[in-house]
Amino acid sequence: MSVTTSTIGFPRIGRKREMKIALERYWKKQSTLQDMLAVQHSVEEESWKAQKSAGVALVGIDQGTLYDHVLDTTFLIGCIPARFKGLSGYDAYFAMARGAQGAVALDMSKYFDTNYHFLVPELEDGWTPAPDFSHFLDRVRRCQATIGKESAVPILLGPVTYASLARSNTAAAPDLDVVLAKLLPVYLELLQKLKELQLHEPFLTTTKGAKLQAPTSAAYKQLAAQGVSLNFVTYYDDLGEAYPWVVSLPVSAVSLDFLGVPGASAPNASLDLPSVPLSHLPWDTALEQALDQGVTARLGFAVQKLGELVQLAKGVTNAPAEASPLDLSSFRPKELTFEIPDNLYRRPEAYSVRRTKQISMPAFPTTTIGSFPQTADVRRLRLQYKQGRLSQAEYERGIASHIGFAIGMQEALGLDVLVHGEAERTDMVEYFGAGLTGMAFTEHGWVQSYGSRYVRPPLVVGDIAFNKPMTVWEYKVAQALTPRPVKGMLTGPVTILNWSFPRRDISRRAQALQLALALREEVAALEAAGCTVVQVDEPALREGLPLKAERWEGYLGWAVDAFRLTTAVAAPATQIVTHLCYSDFQDIMAAIDAMDAVVVAAADVLTIENSRSSDEMIRALAAAQYGRDIGPGVYDVHSPVVPTVEFMKEKIRSFVASGILGGAAGATRVWVNPDCGLKTRGWDETIGSLRNMVQ
């Protein structure tokens, strides 16, 4: 059987993060638009050539985005909210991504069950598409000129997925049929300019998506009538109950993810693709010179996956007819080899009792989420230490100086609960992974989280265990400088696991509990050092939720256990804070019993992303009668705009109106804080924003 290879996406950040550098120079007005676009074109061309030279027959021309491919689709369709209409071109594009004075950015959310963030399409009442295909078609032409017309296949987010991800700017959910009726003429017009198109429809792998047979079938009947070759692509999970009707759609090919269910195997097929876009992987293991070769040999980044793809196609093509299929049905990841006593999952006293023993705060107390700007001086200090150009004592003096500045600044502004600023951390997951046994790290294993925000996921290579305290020294330095409480800052076990490349030989549950046991010792070490407020961040809680609702209970069970195991060691007088961000938490409100069954089972304060999402989560929590402390973000940390005092006052008024306070006494329960950490902002923006926030 002859098999044709194809790709459905490739890393778009550049071999050595060229796009990050180009974007941030442009935003700082250190380069021109033409300079930035030249880098983008160079990165795209290198990507196309890498795929072609690896032997891939059909190279997918993904949207080599400047920020987010969903935002690119929004621009192609011309779905621009009115508040951005005074801007044009790339000014409007980046304002929608990052905000502008007087124009709040689009809401940001996690993309299915990944650590990628997308900008949520916003549909205003009476919206009408105003399509612009120029950038899309220019990319297609450039790819065809680079690798040949016969090898280049354009990629676009499909209409059903785009419509399903979109939200109305009113309280009512958009009517899918109405949205599709407006979108389909745009897609039909574009198809008139193409001979072939990959349409990506990952939403159909979700529980909600499986119920969209009628609108999907109707939409693709219209699209197929154009006579253009359509490759219908799904990924992130199996199709489940949607499989029978999806494979019956009037398209040229259907590409499926067969890795979502253990033991699944693909039927005979003539098209061989990766199971998910390779943009979720780093570029090339060949860049890793310092990583243990035994670890490197077990890795496959995007370039290696291309080789595997081509070899797989050759193997299938040349396989003897009598070859037997490989049976993987007996493989099951291992669990822990020991039992954890039930009492380790429970805090010693109920919330209503322990809250009276914790720190006392005024009405609407103020704090931040943890990190402060990662300046060039901070990065230089860490690099010099890593290169051996600074001694341990010299490095610690440098970090202590940055901590001192952070504490002094917060005291001067009048914040109530302080943080040390995290100058020692390159990344909230990488830092803790480096302090634990059982994890390895890359130098160039970057993947895009959103925009120019890239992360290097750690590699889980063995059993995870506590080694030595990772945050106690920094806490002691900070607390010695102020009488105000300073938070101990940890990343939670579920987030560390979800933002790492996990092992395959033991279950994710087992790895999460190993992490929890290790972090539990860190919580105890902070308490022993005198810390009375410990923040355990779980921003990746929601993204780990399976796309199929019937699998939620299993995931939530061990996610609950991991957080409880980490934090239940805390004494009643120790306040446990957690932070959640950029996810659609209403999806799981019913499943987690008004949040009480998950992180807040052991937490005393919940801080959440809120500024871009129109208080959706606040209203949901108020309706669920959430009764613990809460810190809804009052401004967007991913925007360079300094929010005004009145803007944040209005936010607080909306919290009051939601009913979350539960009466006048509840004012001490509502914390005032930014949406998230401030590491990506400059000091001028940070100080200006926090000054207004405290006022």
UniProtKB/TrEMBL annotation:
Can you tell which superkingdom this protein's organism belongs to? Eukaryota
* Enzyme class at the top of the EC tree: transferase
What are the recorded Gene Ontology BP terms? methionine biosynthetic process; methylation
Q: Which cofactor does it need?
A: Zn(2+)
Looking up InterPro entries in the UniProt record yields: Cbl-indep_Met_Synth_N, Met_Synth_C/arc, UROD/MetE-like_sf
Entries under CDD domains matching the protein: CIMS_C_terminal_like (cd03311)
Q: In which pathway does it act?
A: Amino-acid biosynthesis; L-methionine biosynthesis via de novo pathway; L-methionine from L-homocysteine (MetE route): step 1/1
Any one GO MF annotation of this record: 5-methyltetrahydropteroyltriglutamate-homocysteine S-methyltransferase activity
Catalyzed reactions: 5-methyltetrahydropteroyltri-L-glutamate + L-homocysteine = tetrahydropteroyltri-L-glutamate + L-methionine
- State its Enzyme Commission number(s): 2.1.1.14
- Where does the record place the Cobalamin-independent methionine synthase MetE C-terminal/archaeal domain? 364-695
Q: Describe the location of the Cobalamin-independent methionine synthase MetE N-terminal domain by residue ranges.
A: 5-259
Which Gene3D superfamilies does its entry note? 3.20.20.210
Signal peptide per UniProt: none
Q: Which keywords does UniProt give here?
A: Amino-acid biosynthesis, Metal-binding, Methionine biosynthesis, Methyltransferase, Transferase, Zinc
UniProt-listed PANTHER family? 5-METHYLTETRAHYDROPTEROYLTRIGLUTAMATE--HOMOCYSTEINE METHYLTRANSFERASE (PTHR30519)
Q: What does this protein do?
A: Catalyzes the transfer of a methyl group from 5-methyltetrahydrofolate to homocysteine resulting in methionine formation.
The Swiss-Prot or TrEMBL record describes its family as follows: Belongs to the vitamin-B12 independent methionine synthase family.
Q: What is this protein called?
A: 5-methyltetrahydropteroyltriglutamate--homocysteine S-methyltransferase
Q: Which organism is it from?
A: Haematococcus lacustris (Green alga)
